[in-house]
């Protein structure tokens, strides 16, 4: 199992932490990670083929985007919001199960295309995308983050990296218990 320090080295191998160079990136087929900008344009999202929006920065105040179901439903988009701060002390893991279910259910539709966003698309939303890959595509945290990092500049905070490692362990334990039953 990896450590937080190993994940950080994996994400910034050359020592430079770069902010995302594009507003949104497809990090897995039909799964996109973005900053807040694209999420503010539901008509544009619909035109681009998106069907679902997962806001990882739900709410008001600094570092938040206050959108809701009514903001997207008039454009035929399904919405789910998570109210979590981008802080190493925030418990993002309490949202992993519901976020993974939303993404998985969305992706189960033939036409499902999901935008997972936060304010910068750098920490919260890639962490949620990684949690989904860990649970539904049998990846380790290192594999999921490597895959996402190959598509987008990301660097989840230390607390989120720790929680992804815990999530990996939880999913692996559940899988081994299921296999032995």
UniProtKB/TrEMBL annotation:
EC class name: hydrolase
Catalytic activity: O-phospho-L-threonyl-[protein] + H2O = L-threonyl-[protein] + phosphate; O-phospho-L-seryl-[protein] + H2O = L-seryl-[protein] + phosphate
PROSITE patterns for the chain: TYR_PHOSPHATASE_1, TYR_PHOSPHATASE_2, TYR_PHOSPHATASE_DUAL
Keyword Hydrolase on entry: yes
GO CC term (a single one): cytoplasm
An annotated Gene Ontology molecular function: protein serine/threonine phosphatase activity
One matching Pfam family: DSPc
InterPro entries hit by this protein: Atypical_DUSP_subfamA, Dual-sp_phosphatase_cat-dom, Prot-tyrosine_phosphatase-like, Tyr_Pase_AS, Tyr_Pase_dom, TYR_PHOSPHATASE_DUAL_dom
Keywords, sorted A to Z: Hydrolase, Protein phosphatase
E.C. no: 3.1.3.16
Residues in Tyrosine specific protein phosphatases domain copies: 93-152
Active site: 118
Any one biological process term the GO annotation gives: negative regulation of MAPK cascade
Highest taxon above the source species: Eukaryota
Record keyword Metal-binding present: no
Tyrosine-protein phosphatase domain boundaries: 23-173
PANTHER family reported in the protein's UniProt record: AGAP008228-PA (PTHR45682), DUAL SPECIFICITY PROTEIN PHOSPHATASE 3 (PTHR45682:SF1)
Family: Belongs to the protein-tyrosine phosphatase family. Non-receptor class dual specificity subfamily.
Protein name: protein-serine/threonine phosphatase
Organism listed in the record: Salpingoeca rosetta (strain ATCC 50818 / BSB-021)
